[in-house]
Write a structure and sequence with these properties.
Structural class: alpha+beta
Number of helices: 15
Distance between the termini: 70 Å
Largest sheet: 5 strands, mixed
CATH architecture of the largest domain: 2-Layer Sandwich
Strand content: 5-15%
CATH class of the largest domain: Alpha Beta
Low-confidence stretches: 47-51, 288-293, 550-556
Number of strands: 16
Mean pLDDT: 77
Radius of gyration: 55 Å
CATH topology of the largest domain: Heat Shock Protein 90
Length: about 600
């Protein structure tokens, strides 16, 4: 048999190779992308050195800028913070002129700053919120000593009042020097309502009145509003109340515009009191510069492509080697399965994986095929033997009559008819088995009295039983009428009775019992015969099988009766079983579902 060529697109090696290449490409591209992203992120951190762990540096410089008009005295703070964090800290103007530097190092003109220190515009990434004005930038709102003492006295009175009401309060002083009373979980105005004589929120000092008046004027100018038409109130904590004389002009957008103008005006008002924006660099002391050490230049792209190509080539080579190793046992299995039956040998099972399981399955299949072939040959031999015996007898008697050695009398005709009936019986059995194998064995159910059917079977076999000196009896319950195929039922029970009579010695008994309960017909054929060994029970329903292989047909029958009985039972949707022990007899039990009517 010529080996069939597997199309390349169906080859296991090709598919395995394609899958591996696809996986390798995806994995390599993903890895390269991750490496580039990670490296780029690392480079950016090297360029700017994220201040997630060094926010104290930014906060310290921000506080200095908020309380000074320039950076002239920031040097000591820079040096102190540099020693604490072990980094080089450099502060420059926006045009990269150095203001303060904790250590010598390369120029930072091309470097990316770590942050921009601007008290009027804080960095949201470092302050953990939106861009805002640093609260330490108070400018014209800083209270005088006298104003602080006056407000402090009122604050002490308010705390005392709250404590008399069972509330634990504390005084918090803002960067401007204004004290406020706080209770965890309470709003300031709620505290004021509890202690009416001391409303700190409504007590404006002279310093605050002047500064807030200027701020209100700047905000109204930004809005382009008429002071007589717009009502704008600004508290010391810069909360606002906004309204217009004309209700039609009031809107959420207008209120938002007022908030934006207030922020812009505050920055304009505070600008002369704070230091100008500066660039902050936090770098390693060794090199200082945050120049990129990796980028997607032509050389780096070539390096990435080379490494990626090498990985792909290695993946292809490994895939080819592994695929070839995997396919080799499959080819061995295919060659073994392609050999003729007579030349086939067992395939060695060398692995414990799927291929090993496949080899074991093929060996089992080959063993079953050998057994099937042996059974087929034995069956052909048995059929030939069963057919040859009656044909030989018929031919012998006919030749004897032709040669004048025997007279064509009624006795000879009776002998010939007996052999013809036996031959017809064997042929009918073979036909029934062939129909069962082809799934064309049909039953024709109709209402049948079980007792009558079993009595007919007993009467048909009573002559053979008396000849063998075997007692044949029936035991039935009531007189049930069931829906079964009467012809097939009699054939089924007849095969069991015939088998029991043949295997029961003289003086024995064959009993046929029937019972109908819960929609199930149970028929038992029990004998007191020679019994069946436990090792032979699994094969008792095989075709042409005999427990005693040396028995002749005259003593053992054709060997098809029990096989036909099983097929007829299955055709009715039932089951047949046997229990037996050597020397104690056998009992065949047939169970099949039926529709029934009990007749009293």
């Amino acid at each position: 048999m010529r080996a069939q060529r597997v199309p390349p697109h169906r080859s296991l090696v090709v598919r395995l190779l394609a899958t591996s290449i696809l996986v390798a490409v995806c994995a390599t591209m993903t890895t390269a992308w991750l490496v580039v992203q990670s490296t780029t992120r690392a480079v950016r951190q090297e360029q700017g050195r994220s201040l997630s762990d060094d926010t104290s540096v930014y906060d310290a410089l921000l506080g200095y800028g908020a309380t000074h008009t320039d950076w002239s005295g920031v040097g000591p703070i820079v040096d102190e913070r540099a020693r604490e964090v072990g980094r080089r800290i450099t502060l420059t103007t926006e045009d990269r002129q150095v203001i303060a530097d904790s250590a010598d190092g390369p120029s930072l003109r091309a470097a990316r700053p770590s942050a921009i220190v601007d008290p009027l515009r804080t960095d949201p990434g470092l302050t953990g919120g939106a861009e805002r004005i640093d609260p330490r930038a108070v400018g014209p709102y800083r209270l005088t000593g006298r104003e602080r003492r006056s407000l402090r006295a009122d604050a002490d009175q308010q705390v005392s009042c709250l404590k008399d009401q069972g509330l634990g309060a504390e005084i918090v002083e803002a960067p401007s020097g204004r004290p406020s009373v706080r209770i965890p979980g309470s709003a300031p105005r709620t505290l004021s309502s509890l202690c009416e004589p001391w409303r700190l929120e409504e007590q404006l000092t002279k310093t605050e009145e002047v500064a807030l008046a200027k701020l209100t004027k700047l905000t109204l100018a930004c809005l382009g509003a008429d002071p007589f038409q717009v009502k704008l109130g600004i508290a010391p904590d810069f909360t606002t109340t906004f309204g217009e004389a004309d209700p039609k002009r009031a809107s959420a957008a207008r209120s938002k515009q007022a908030g934006d103008c207030l922020l812009k005006s505050r920055r304009s008002q505070l600008k002369p009191y704070v230091a100008p924006p500066a660039l902050l660099f936090v770098t390693d002391p060794a090199d200082g510069a945050a120049q990129p050490t990796f980028n997607l230049s032509r050389a780096n792209i070539t390096r990435i492509a080379t490494v990626t190509g090498a990985v792909l080539l290695l993946a292809i080579l490994v895939t080819v080697l592994v695929g070839t190793r995997l396919v080799r046992p499959l080819r061995t299995l295919a060659e073994a399965a392609r050999k003729p039956v007579e030349d086939q040998a067992r395939v060695p099972v060398t692995t414990n994986d799927e291929i090993g399981y496949l080899a074991t399955a093929l060996n089992d299949l080959a063993a079953r095929r050998e057994r099937t072939e042996q059974q087929r040959k034995a069956m052909v031999s048995d059929v030939a033997h069963e057919l040859r015996t009656p044909l030989t007898n018929m031919r012998s008697w006919l030749e004897a009559a032709q040669d004048g050695l025997a007279t064509a009398d009624p006795q000879l005709l009776s002998l010939l008819l007996e052999e013809a009936v036996l031959l017809q019986h064997i042929i009918d059995d073979l036909r029934d088995l062939a129909a069962a194998d082809a799934d064309t064995l049909r039953v024709h159910p109709e209402p049948v009295y079980v007792n009558d059917a079993l009595e007919q079977v007993a009467e048909a076999h009573r002559g053979a039983a008396e000849t063998a000196a075997v007692r044949l009896v029936t035991e039935t319950e009531a007189d049930p009428q069931v829906v079964v195929d009467p012809v097939r039922l009699r054939q089924l029970v007849g095969n069991l009775v015939s088998n029991a009579v043949r295997h029961t010695p003289s003086g024995g008994t064959v009993t046929v019992r029937s019972r109908v309960a819960d929609g199930e017909l149970t028929v038992q054929v029990a004998d007191t015969g020679i019994g069946i060994a436990a090792a032979d029970l699994p094969r008792i329903f095989d075709r042409f099988w005999r427990a005693d292989g040396s028995r002749t047909r005259s003593t053992g029958g054709s060997g098809l009766g029990l096989a036909i009985a099983r097929k007829l039972t299955e055709a009715h949707g039932g089951t047949i079983s046997v229990t037996s022990a050597p020397g104690a007899g056998s009992t065949f039990t047939v169970r099949m579902p039926v529709a029934l009517t009990l007749v009293p």
